[in-house]
Specification:
- The structure is a single chain.
- With 403 residues, this protein is mainly beta.
- The chain has a single domain, classed as 6 Propeller (Neuraminidase).
- It contains 3 helices and 29 strands.
- The strands form 8 sheets. Strands 26-2-29-28-27 form a 5-stranded mixed β-sheet, with no helix packed on it. Strands 3-4-5-6 form a 4-stranded antiparallel β-sheet, with no helix packed on it.
- A hairpin with an 8-residue loop joins strand 3 and strand 4.
- The radius of gyration is 20 Å and the shape is globular.
- 47% of the residues are buried.
């Protein structure tokens, strides 16, 4: 929904979206434990090479493989823990945050990671680094640690709101999620980083890693040939922690982490402004910025929920697998507090949110870090029982319908 007058946003959205309902059925889904004894698993990716392997990211800087037999390979695929900035033990938003395999990985062995580094941080907290690595051609269960090629460095003024999602779109271009630079309320610069089209913080960027070194710019990016950073694909985001593309429709769904009151899910479109720091969810966040932005076109989320319910949204996937037929076409996502939701598009193009009841002992005692999807379209959850990036309490689950 396009909104031209953000200061009147709440009233407009009540008329357009109505009230969202919560579903309280018993045991909508169950969880199958796939792997455990991991350290802060925060992401999953798979290469399109027919191997049916799943690669699990640990925040501290390691990547492990779950092989086609469903077993966790003991030796890490990649260990860059010495390159990752020193993390705090209790809670940290930095680390190894993203992984994506080149669409032609089977032939070229190229893959990409996003991590937080202290190298050349200067007065900033750290530097976000996007790098390319290659697999060891003699053992495709091992990366070549000496093959790193740094593609992009982005100074990060604070320790939090780092994004980190990596994803290749249908044209073979690499999408990268970058948070607003951290702290609270996007305080950097006169209008905040997320609304500043001359830097890449608070954005989803889109680059071509095949045409030039270190990268090229897709010519249909929205700011090519005009004021604004050529890399930008969409902006006005606070912390686009996890996003995914629906295999059937091609739509890009993003969970954007909120400030103090509201969490939101957006459908990302090229060149659009998603409102932060003017808005938080459907609501005005900064009154002065909203007054100035009356004639700026902002895009509302397709859902929001308050911190009475959750704390930090974790974007998921539209289900396109075969084992959970009741969930076909539903967007499955969650909250760090251990809550699962679905979103279903209605005939009037609004979205109905339902909270899922999970058949698993003490599921609400788990923190949901991230979601994953395998080659068959089945959905996975990365979670941990204890806070912090060094706790050996991480687990990987596959979503199932209860028996």
């Amino acid at each position: 929904m396009k909104l031209l007058r953000p200061i009147f946003l709440t009233a407009v959205l009540m008329l357009c979206f109505g009230f969202q309902t919560e579903h309280k059925a018993e045991y909508d889904v169950s969880l199958e434990l796939v792997a455990e004894n991991l350290v802060s698993p925060i992401g999953m990716a798979w290469p399109n090479d027919g191997s049916d392997r799943k690669f699990i990211i640990e925040q501290r800087g390691l990547i492990y493989i779950i092989n086609k037999e469903g077993k966790l390979v003991e030796t890490p695929f990649l260990d860059i823990s010495k390159k990752v900035v020193k993390l705090t033990s209790r809670y940290d938003e930095r680390g190894l945050l993203g992984l994506a395999f080149h669409p032609n990985f089977k032939e070229n062995g190229r893959f990409f990671v996003y991590y937080s580094s202290a190298a050349a941080a200067d007065k900033n907290d750290h530097v976000a680094i996007l790098s390319e690595y290659k697999v060891d051609l003699k053992n495709r269960d091992k990366a070549n640690p000496a093959s790193e090629k740094v593609i992009l460095r982005v100074p990060q003024p604070e320790w939090n709101h780092n994004g980190g999602q990596l994803l290749f779109d249908e044209k073979g271009f690499l999408l990268v999620g970058l948070g607003d630079g951290g702290s609270g309320g996007d305080p950097h610069g006169t209008i905040g980083n997320a609304q500043n089209i001359n830097n890449v913080l608070g954005k989803i960027i889109r680059i071509d890693i095949d045409s030039k070194i270190p990268y090229g710019i897709p010519q249909d990016n929205p700011f090519v040939g005009k004021d604004g950073s050529d890399e930008i694909y969409a902006y006005g985001l606070r912390n686009p922690w996890r996003f995914s593309i629906d295999k059937k429709t091609g739509r890009l769904f993003c969970g954007d982490v909120g400030q103090n009151k509201y969490e939101e899910v957006n459908i990302i479109e090229k060149g659009k402004n998603y409102g932060w720091r003017i808005m938080e969810g459907y609501h005005t966040f900064n009154e002065q910025e909203a007054e100035k932005a009356k004639n700026i076109e902002l895009i509302a989320p397709i859902t929001e929920y308050s911190h009475d319910l959750g704390a930090s949204v974790t974007g998921g996937y539209v289900y396109r697998g075969k084992s959970m037929k009741d969930f076909e076409g539903k967007y499955i996502f969650g909250d760090w507090r251990g809550i699962l939701f679905t979103l279903s598009e209605q005939p009037d193009k609004t979205w109905k949110r339902e909270q899922l009841s999970v058949k698993y002992p003490k599921f609400k005692d788990l923190n949901i870090n991230s979601f994953g999807e395998d080659q068959q379209g089945e959905i996975y959850i990365m979670a941990q029982e204890l806070d912090g990036p060094f706790q050996l309490s991480g687990k990987v689950f596959r979503l199932k319908q209860p028996d």
